[in-house]
Amino acid sequence: MAGSRASGICSTYPGKSLNMTKTIFDLHSPHPEPSTFVAFAENHLDRQSEHRADDCVEKALKHPGAHFLAFSGAKLIVKHDEKIIDPLFAPYELAGLEPTIDEAILLGFLPNGEPRLAVPSGLTEETVPEPFKIADARMLYRQQMLPEDLLGQFAQGSSLITWNASNRFCGRCGGPMDGAAGGYRRICTACGHMVFPRTDPVVIMLTVDVERDLCLLGRSPHFAPGMYSCLAGFVEPGETIENAVRRETHEESGIRIGRVRYHASQPWPLPHSLMIGCYAEARSTVIKRDEQELEDVRWFTRAETEAMLERSTGVANTPDEHIPPPKGAIAHQLMRDWLAWPERS
Fold it and tell me: Which of 46, 48, 123, 301 has its CA at 20 to 30 Å from residue 66's CA atom?
């Protein structure tokens, strides 16, 4: 049985002989991982999730090297002038930000042991004073306002700030909930019910017609003019990633899907999703667009996709010109990595 199973695995990769010294991690596993090239993915903090005691924030606040990311809702407050954008605040710098320190969240620790925390602020875009500025997730990564590591810390903090703010009352009895475990748990003060941070899985897929060497892209009404991207949708309860890819693709485009291959993932703090990037094998060609969801769906050649990716301005210059999702978006990476594969001969 073991031998037949191993042979079955190898038959998926034509031209490769069975090598018992290899492991499952050697079979077409790209390195570096494609997920390292998307926005919000890099985060070097040691989260120390197994040590999140209820007093961990209190202890972190006493550390002389503690620094904060401050949030207005899900948006980040930064110190901003013509030359420098700085999202980190020492405790003494928080005074003008109207922080709610008792709702601070411990994100983790730098290699030198300095803690990083997230804290909600009472400031809004209307009340924020100079030299501060409020920036949302799209602005931060599209304008490359932060180093990748800080962008990942923002994603972690933004998702947790939003989740805590959305769970102030118990879903069972309606009683008030208090934060615990450094912001990673909330407990009802009336009935003791506990809730934990949620992450919503979303499949995003580049459907490929292998025979014709085409990829399927669509555009939503809220996209920038001329932008086309991969199809996407939430994974439903009781559904595998593969079946979610097949269902969403068929619902939005009418295309039937065969094989599905996972490629990369991306944390998406809008507000707390995980984008699961896949390639999907088209088993039909005729498009039947979901007119409620999409303005257009069409097949693109390699040449068209490559020309699209070369337009890095994010602006379509003519009504007929197509542009890709921004660099840093997993859809952009799926398109770029498809082009890196050899054409079908």
Answer: 123
